[in-house]
Amino acid sequence: MNLDLALRMCESAIKEARRLGALISVAVVDAGGHLLAFQRMDGADIAGPELAPAKAYTAVALRAATADLAPLVAPRGELYGLASGRFVCVAGGIPLWNAETVVGGVGVSGGTPAQDVACAGLAATLWEDPF
Amino acid sequence: MNLDLALRMCESAIKEARRLGALISVAVVDAGGHLLAFQRMDGADIAGPELAPAKAYTAVALRAATADLAPLVAPRGELYGLASGRFVCVAGGIPLWNAETVVGGVGVSGGTPAQDVACAGLAATLWEDPF
Amino acid sequence: MNLDLALRMCESAIKEARRLGALISVAVVDAGGHLLAFQRMDGADIAGPELAPAKAYTAVALRAATADLAPLVAPRGELYGLASGRFVCVAGGIPLWNAETVVGGVGVSGGTPAQDVACAGLAATLWEDPF
Amino acid sequence: MNLDLALRMCESAIKEARRLGALISVAVVDAGGHLLAFQRMDGADIAGPELAPAKAYTAVALRAATADLAPLVAPRGELYGLASGRFVCVAGGIPLWNAETVVGGVGVSGGTPAQDVACAGLAATLWEDPF
Fold first, then answer.
1. Which strands sit side by side in the sheet containing D35-40, from one edge to the other?
2. Which of A62, A74, C17, D76 has the fewest other C-beta atoms within 10 Å?
């Protein structure tokens, strides 16, 4: 991961948000879950700076898309209780893989869950195919 | 509890993880819930340093295997609301008993719940039968 | 404040950091102290994501450059005790004024205090003279 | 960094502590500041699990030995106020460098500052000269 790629990921997520009519925040973190880049669209809610980095961190820390974690942390799910503290298991966080290793993550917040996932997914494609 | 035993517990848990093809973190805590030893396998997720010690602490603090606590902290369970803050009631934490007294705990994170329980269980047998 | 200006502020701070040979993180926040944009240079320390947004928040919350707050929060200073929790009173945070109103802030971390202040100052000039 | 090296660092620090008659905790973290290995000697204080990992994290996050940070965070120091929250700027934390990059850190707590530094230093030499 590097800043240049992180910035292009943010731009890609925001471009998709504009297409969908959503107002989002987008965060890109490194393999340690630490923020590399963050952008909040004009008019997007102030929860974004809390949630977008937290979704990206969670995707890295638990090595899973936060959308896939959501059912696991629900009552009677096998990770119930984990959705507290630093882990935000709400759709919109996606880990970036290099073979077996998670090298970073992207998190989007502000739209509907489907919109957040779509925007984060677009950003993630830049990692999967940086050329 | 002592460091030598704690280290052998960590090794035992990791050996079982290798056998199961899991990448785990393992923590051993004393009767006060304070960390004695911790080891994270190469490639294991960065949630491990958060969750393995927390599971071990929770097992000591609530004097129960965290897997057994899970239904109690779910909605309508008699400990509902407890699965937040320091208590992590996800499978993988096991208390170590000396008759009626909890003298320590072991916590494993990184595999599936069944894998975490298996690895923690192997480590716990060293306490139950240190010879 | 808006995202476009926040991004140009980040670029300006990073350009100055390159000129000075510093590796920095830069954050721009709105009038509520909430993050609008953040960028961490490749190789900059992982304290940056903690400190740059905190300096920008502190500059907005206390309506002062964090460098000016430092003596006030020291022992016998009139704000002694404030330099804890969310307030980071270390040089590098600058409030952005519109007449009597603070409309945002910029925070830089990673270089020496003088470098951080220089980079934040360059970014702040874009607000003072956006044309 | 990897677990095998982290374990040898822990052993090295504890061996030095025994020689000095100190009772310590030792932590080794990765480039993201996340715990790889931790060991607490029998009889060492329960502050160790809090302080040793925090010193190692701080050394990585601020890319400096915590002993060198101590005067900077003292009153009238240029980083005064930073010694709160996650940053522990007390002697005993050492960053591990690979050329210009910090790839991990070691933290020791429990002895005198000089003892902590000596034990962490011994551990760090294993990184500098792993052969």
1. B93-98, B101-109, B25-30, B35-40, D35-40, D25-30, D101-109, D93-98
2. D76
Model ipTM value:
0.95
DSSP assigned state of C23: -
> Tell me: the pLDDT tens digits for C58-76?
999 999 999 999 889 888 8
- Give A6-54 pLDDT, tens digit per residue: 999 999 999 999 999 999 999 999 999 999 999 999 999 999 999 999 9
Which pTM does this prediction carry? 0.95
> Burial, C2: exposed, middle or buried (Cβ in 10 Å; 0-12, 13-18, 19+)?
middle
- Chain C positions in Cβ-Cβ contact with residue A25 (cut-off 8 Å): 35
* Cβ contact C3:A41 at 8 Å: yes
| CA angle in degrees (0–180, nearest 5) for B25-D3-B126 | 55
Measured distance CA(C120)–CA(C12) in Å, rounded: 9
pLDDT of residue D78: 87
Neighbours of chain B (3+ CB pairs under 8 A): A, D
**Bridging pattern class, strands C35-40 and C93-98:** unpaired
